[in-house]
Specification:
The protein folds into two domains: 4-121, Nitrogenase molybdenum iron protein domain (Rossmann fold), CATH 3.40.50.1980; 169-304, Nitrogenase molybdenum iron protein domain (Rossmann fold, 3-Layer(aba) Sandwich), CATH 3.40.50.1980. The chain is an alpha/beta fold and 305 residues long. It is built from 13 helices and twelve strands. Helix 5 packs antiparallel against helix 6 and helix 6 runs parallel beside helix 13 (277-288).
Length: 305
């Protein structure tokens, strides 16, 4: 069986869902689901201080990028000791997790057989499923991939079909992926919003998440605002809420007046393009159409402000 190192939380979840958890020998410092993977040695760390406000974290990361440096550090000696056959990483976002170039640099001077590097690149929703199959193929288990993808697609389709088949009004939705500076959610999120029975206002499917101004948010005055910052759980995200709620325009927004502002766990769900993409859609469906959907995620996956 292959010795596997996963340097991306969503990739770790994919590897486990494919039935290869027992073959994992290393992980990233952010891989924490399923909880049992935390027993594995962590091979990465951030080069910036992850503490502080959203604005402070954003400034630190941007400074590293401006200096043309990598945002994360890979423990190359420890990686070599683990002798992996397959390393799963990503090339979609240089500031979100260890990248393909980081891994290639870590194994550049290895002698003998080098591990196979599988680099995931999930831009749109379909890419998430393509990456699952690519990972399964690299692990020599293509049928496992087909089964996983088929099951997840069926779960998503059942929600989308129910939302589409009902005579319910589709609310306009703004999804916030970072609070300060303000960023909307792109990539797979616009598709999930539409599947859950909403009308996505910001961000385009298959494209990187865009920065936006508060004035843009106020101008479109969404009926629903979902706040799910990348890398933050709900309690951590709540620390930065005063940046939004303290603005004089905030109480005037329709979503605020009608109490349709929600927080969700962006770290565990929306910003992890892995098997729990299905739970992400369930959360959206519960939020947008509570009379139609009830999956039991309130409190753990999302809450109303």
């Amino acid at each position: 069986m292959p010795r596997i190192v996963s340097l991306l939380p969503s990739a770790t979840e994919i590897v486990c869902a494919l039935g290869f958890e027992s073959d994992l020998v290393g992980r990233s410092h952010e891989c924490d689901f399923p909880a049992s993977v935390t027993r594995l040695p962590a091979l990465t760390e951030a080069k910036f201080n992850p503490e502080g406000t959203s604005a402070e974290i954003d400034q630190r990361v941007k400074q590293i990028v401006r200096d043309a440096l990598s945002v994360y550090r890979v423990d190359a000696p420890k990686l070599r000791e683990l002798r992996p056959d397959v390393i799963v990483t990503q090339s979609q976002c240089e500031v979100c997790a260890v990248s393909q170039s980081d891994v290639e640099a870590a194994v550049a001077d290895w002698l003998g057989t080098r591990p196979r590097i599988v680099s995931l690149a999930p831009y749109a929703l379909d890419d998430v499923f393509i990456d699952m199959q690519r990972t399964a193929d690299a692990l020599g288990a293509p049928e496992n991939g087909k089964k996983l993808v088929k099951g997840l697609r069926a779960r998503l389709a059942s929600i989308a079909d129910k939302a589409r088949g009902q005579t319910v009004r589709r609310p306009t939705v703004a999804t916030v992926e970072w609070i300060d500076p303000l960023m909307a959610a792109g990539n797979w999120m616009p598709t999930l919003v539409e599947m859950a029975g909403g009308i996505n206002l910001f961000g385009k499917a298959g494209e990187h998440s865009p920065w936006m101004e508060f004035a843009e948010l106020a101008a479109k005055d969404p009926e629903v605002i979902l706040i799910s910052p990348c890398g933050f759980n709900m309690n951590r995200a709540a620390e930065d809420l005063p940046v939004l709620t303290g603005r004089p325009e905030w109480p005037k927004l329709r979503a605020v007046r009608e109490r349709r502002v929600f927080m969700a766990d962006g770290n565990q769900y929306f910003n992890r393009p892995g098997p729990r993409i299905a739970e992400s859609l369930e959360i959206l469906a519960e939020i947008l159409h509570p009379k139609l959907f009830s999956f039991g995620h309130e409190g753990s996956g999302w809450r109303r402000l």
